[in-house]
Backbone:
């Protein structure tokens, strides 16, 4: 289950020196996120899949568009290509 994967990833982050206390947005040695899940949507106490911010992150959408342009966001129904184009348009607006 995704919760088990989250715990494994957090343990790995800790092994690389990540500390979860303190400032939320500070730089980290290692930051592992679960972006997608084969079952589509997952909502748990400490985890929401798809990742809440993936639609707003070009560093996620650009490579996703290259490897799986037809992948569809289970919440919006938009493809990776469409999400990326929306983000690009939003950034180009004055």
Residues:
């Amino acid at each position: 289950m995704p919760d088990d994967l989250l715990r494994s990833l957090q343990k790995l982050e800790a092994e690389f020196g990540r500390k979860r206390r303190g400032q939320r947005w500070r730089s980290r040695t290692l930051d592992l996120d679960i972006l997608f899940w084969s079952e589509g949507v997952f909502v748990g106490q400490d985890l929401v899949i798809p990742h809440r911010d993936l639609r707003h992150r070009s560093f996620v959408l650009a490579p996703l568009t290259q490897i799986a342009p037809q992948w569809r966001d289970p919440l919006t129904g938009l493809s990776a290509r469409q999400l990326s184009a929306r983000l690009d348009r939003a950034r180009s607006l004055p």
Q: What stands out?
A: The CA atoms of residues 3 and 44 lie 7 Å apart. The longest helix spans residues 2-15. The helical segments are 2-15, 58-67, 80-92. The mean pLDDT is 88.
